[in-house]
C-alpha cells in the first residue's frame, strides 16, 4: 500500500526474496495523476533504485476507461439501487479532488475522471440532467478541482432534490473518504439542505465484477510473462 | 545511451513529447549487473520520477542466455574464422570485468558471463581445453573478476600457443574496449609473449543476426502492447 501496511517496499522486497525476477505493478487508482498512479510508480522506482539485483519491471497505465471497470461500476449502481425502498432522482459521481494547479501543469486526472463519469452515465442510460461529476476531499487553502461534492449536495438539497445517490468510482475499496466523508458527512450536508433520502453506492471492493476486472488487468500486464 | 548522446533522459523525453504512453526499455547489456542493466534502469527510473505524466514502463531482464544471442555469437565466430588464412587453436571470450566486491554482494554478472561463455562454447563444439572465459578493463586498485584477459594472453603466449582468437560477447557494438583494448593492446601483449597470430571477432554490431535478436527481444517485451 502507498500509505498503509504492508508498504510497497515490503511487498517488493518480499517478492524479490522469493526469487521473483519479473514484477508487474498495477496501481489500484483507475485515474492517472502525479498524486495517484505516478505516486505508486515513484515509490516502486525508489525501491528498485536501492536493489542490487532488480527484477524486470512492468508498470500499468491508467484503466479509467476499461470496459470491465465501467461495467463493474454500472452493475454496482443498479444492484445497490434495486435494494432501496426509494428511487434516487439524481446520481453524483464523486472523485477525490486535486489542486487546480496540477491540472494546469498538464495532469490528465481531471480528464480521466470526466471520461469515467461519462462512460458510466452512458452505460446507465442517464442524461446530464440527473448526473454530475464532482470532487471531494479538498485540503488546504488552494483552489481544487470543481464542482466540490459538498457544495453540489447543498445546492441540490436547496434546489428541492429529495433523493440522491453518490458513487465514488475513484476508490476501488471503501475507506474513510467514502464511509465517513460521503456516507456520514455528505449525507448530513444534503439532509440539512432539505434532502430526504441519501445513499452511498459501495465501492467495488471484493465483488465478483471487481475481481474479474483485476484479473483482466493482470492478464494484460503479464502478456508474454505467463502462458 | 547511458554514457553517450543522445542520453537516456533525452530519449525518454522525446518519446514522451511524441505522445508515447507505453515505453519499453531493453538494455543492450546482455549480462545483468548493478553496473550494466541496473545502471540503465536506474537512469530510466530517475527520469520518470521527474515526469508529471509518466508512461507505462517495461524494463527487460537480462538476455545472456537467449538462443538467438548465442546463435548470433556462434555465427560471428565461424564467419570471422572462415575468412582467416590461419586457424586459431584457442578462443578467449573476454567480458568487461567488475570488482570482486560486487560479486560477493550477490551481483549475478559473473554467473551470466559464465553461462553465455559455456553456451557459446557448447554451440561451437569446443572443449574447455581451448576455450576460456576472461575479464578485461580492470580499473583501480581493488581485486576484479579473474582471470584477467591480459594476464591470460601473456600466459598462453609464454606457454607456446601461437594462434589465438578473442571474442567480446558482452559488447553488442565495437567500442574502445574492443577496438583498442583487445584488437591493439591485447594483441601486443600476446605477440610480445611469443604468440604469432591474433584476431578479434567483431561484435554483433548491425549484422543480420544481431538485428534478428533485437527484434525478438523487442517483440517479447511488447507482448500485449502491439498485436
UniProtKB/TrEMBL annotation, chains A, B:
It is found in: Cytoplasm. GO terms for cellular component: cytoplasm. The keyword Transcription regulation does not apply. One of its GO terms (biological process) is heme biosynthetic process. It catalyses: heme b + 2 H(+) = protoporphyrin IX + Fe(2+); Fe-coproporphyrin III + 2 H(+) = coproporphyrin III + Fe(2+). Belongs to the ferrochelatase family. This is Ferrochelatase. It comes from Candidatus Micropelagius thuwalensis. The gene is fliC.
